[in-house]
Structure formats: structure tokens, C-alpha cells
Amino acid sequence: MITIRTIIIDDERLARTELKKLLQDFPEIEIIDEAGNAATAIEKINHHQPDLIFLDIQMPGKTGFDMLAELETVPVVIFTTAYDEYAFRAFEVNALDYLLKPIDRKRLEDAIKKLNIPDYKEEKNADNNDKDTLTENSLIFVKDGDRCWFIKLSEIRLFESVGNYAKVHFGNNKPLILKSLNALEERLDPKVFFRTNRRNIVNLRMVEKVESYFNNGLLLELKNGDKIEVSRRQTVKFKEKMSL
């Protein structure tokens, strides 16, 4: 049987115990650990690299959202929360699901069905072939002020340097993350993401048009209409990569 390696994160011991009892009816869920706060959870997630976490939002010290923002890569998340549906929707978070406490067994079953376990494990294994590299399917969590997003890297068209931060361009959103462009470049798959100049990394899948540009450089037009200059030095690498 294919199993989903799972960590339960909740500051209430009783809540963790009750969820573990409910999950006994789902043999595909393998509980490998639990944590009562964000700091401990980060250590355990980095150590175990779980497939799934059940995550409480309100915890002492750091919230569940704060914790996710500190992870390099994010497992699939099912929130367990006391927020009602409308309050939770104020957060722009595309988690797999969220469960209101006290957790209803039928709602838990519905959430687990969304995992699509065989497909998910295949994708997860592909991501783990090189743990230092983030693939197109890698899921990242972005928190900018009170707004939060889950994003697959394939959805990001552009990373833009803003000092020690990077602006992440996806859809109509441009939140900032505390990552330098150099640090991102080291983790991103070079087959998909290309450093065009000192300020930008583009998703090559998002390039719509390539034009000659000033000083023997190139100008890339992305699918949303953004135009990004490729420096003369990077133009040579771009042509080699794209066999132009």
C-alpha cells in the first residue's frame, strides 16, 4: 500500500490525540511524528521531509502561516483551525483543505480523498531526485504582510531583485520574500529558470517572444506582456541553452 508520511502540528496535545484517533481509520496515512509549536515543527519537517502535514494556525510564538514562510519547500498542508470558513478565506491560501475544530470524520475523509495518493507520490519522488533543486512541481509558501499564498514554481513567471529581497511575480501578485536572487538561482532548476541579468530570473516556460535588443542583447516578452532584457553576457548563455 502506498502511504503518505504525515506530521501533526498543534499546540494542544488533546487535539493531536483526537486527530490521531480519527486517522486510525485511514491506513494510507502514516503518522511519523508530531509537534506542539512552530519551532519544533520546522526541525521535524526538515528532518523527516513528510508528504503531508496537519497544521494548526493559532499557536504560541509563531503561527502556522509564519512557520510555513520559513520552510524551504512545503509539504501538502491540511489546516486544522478554529477559524470559520469566511474568516479563513480572507487568507489567500490554496492549501489542500482546511478542517474546522472539532474535526468531523466525514470532512477528514473528504480532505484525504483530495490527496490523489498515487499521482502525488509519483510527483513527490520526482521532486526528491535532487533535494537541493526546486523543480517546477515544488510547492512554496509566500507570506507578505497579512496575505499568504501557496504557489507551484511553475506558476511563477519572474523573480525580481529588490535589495536583499526578491519580488515574486505570479498572476496579478508581486509579493516580496526574504531571499536574494543569488540564493534563489542556486536552488532553481536551470532547465526552467534562467538568470537574464543582475535583477531578474525568468521562467522559460513563460517566454512568448524573443527579440534582438540594444548592445547585442535580447528582449524577452513573457506571456503576460512583461518585457525583460537579457544582458549581453547572458545572451550568449541563453542562445546556447535554447540552441538559437
What characteristics describe this protein?
single chain, 244 residues, 2 domains, five-stranded parallel sheet
Overview of the structural elements:
With 244 residues, the protein is of the alpha/beta class. The protein folds into two domains: 4-127, Rossmann fold (3-Layer(aba) Sandwich), CATH 3.40.50; 156-242, LytTr DNA-binding domain (OB fold (Dihydrolipoamide Acetyltransferase, E2P), Beta Barrel), CATH 2.40.50. It is built from eight helices and 15 strands. The chain has helices at residues 13-23, 38-48, 64-69, 85-89, 105-113, 117-127, 181-187, 232-242; strands at residues 4-9, 29-35, 52-56, 76-81, 97-100, 139-144, 147-152, 158-162, 165-169, 176-177, 193-195, 200-203, 207-212, 218-222, 227-230. The strands form four sheets. It has a five-stranded parallel beta sheet with strand order 2-1-3-4-5, sandwiched between helices. A hairpin with a 6-residue loop joins strand 9 (165-169) and strand 10 (176-177). The longest helix has 11 residues, at 13-23. It is elongated, with a radius of gyration of 20 Å. The mean pLDDT is 87.
